[in-house]
């Protein structure tokens, strides 16, 4: 806060000295001082807003860091590790079940393919017999 007061005092003194050293009429000097005071008021307002925003941001950041630090300190690593291990075991078990289901499905597909192939072989053999008879009948 001391820096803020020193800054603002420096602005005010600098403006007054500059206005008084410059040779001007009373009206010009008065207008310039009023203008400089308006400028200073604007700078003070902007400075205060920036200072408040920085201060608020800084405090909010400090609070968040403290909150995060507290959460890290309170974090139960063993409990978390146990929960992760439990989930890992559940997923591993489910994957084993899926693998078994896929193996069973593969076996069923193989049986279906073998049966279909046997049917095709029987159909081809029957067609071959029919063709052989047709050829034999045609040759007679």
Strand content: under 5%
Total DSSP helices: 3
Radius of gyration: 47 Å
Number of strands: 0
Order of helices and strands: HHH
Mean pLDDT: 77
Reported for the largest beta sheet, the result is: none
Describe the global form.
elongated
Percent helix among the residues? over 70%
Poorly predicted runs are none
User: What is the domain total for the residues?
Assistant: 2
CA(first)-CA(last) distance: 124 Å
Class based on secondary structure composition and strand pairing: mainly alpha
What do you see in this structure?
With 140 residues, this protein is mainly α. Helix 1 (2-21) runs antiparallel to helix 2 (26-74). The protein has 2 domains: 1-75; 77-140. 94% of the residues lie in helices and 0% in strands. The chain has 3 helices and no strands. The protein is elongated and about 140 Å long.
Q: In short, what is this structure?
A:
The chain has about 140 residues and is an all-alpha fold. It contains three helices and no strands.
Strand and helix map with partners:
Elements: H1 2-21, H2 26-74, H3 77-139
Please describe the structure with a list of short key phrases separated by commas or semicolons.
2 domains; mainly alpha; 140 residues; single chain
């Amino acid at each position: 806060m001391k820096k803020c007061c020193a800054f603002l005092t420096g602005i005010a003194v600098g403006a007054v000295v500059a206005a008084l050293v410059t040779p001007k009429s009373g009206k010009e000097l008065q207008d310039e001082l009023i203008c400089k005071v308006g400028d200073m008021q604007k700078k003070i307002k902007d400075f205060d807003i920036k200072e408040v925003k920085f201060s608020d941001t800084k405090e909010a950041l400090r609070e968040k860091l403290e909150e995060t630090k507290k959460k890290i300190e309170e974090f139960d690593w063993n409990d978390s590790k146990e929960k992760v291990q439990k989930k890992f075991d559940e997923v591993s078990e489910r994957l084993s079940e899926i693998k078994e289901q896929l193996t069973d499905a593969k076996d069923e597909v193989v049986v279906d393919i073998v049966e279909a192939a046997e049917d095709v072989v029987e159909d081809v053999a029957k067609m071959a017999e029919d063709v052989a008879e047709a050829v034999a009948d045609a040759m007679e």
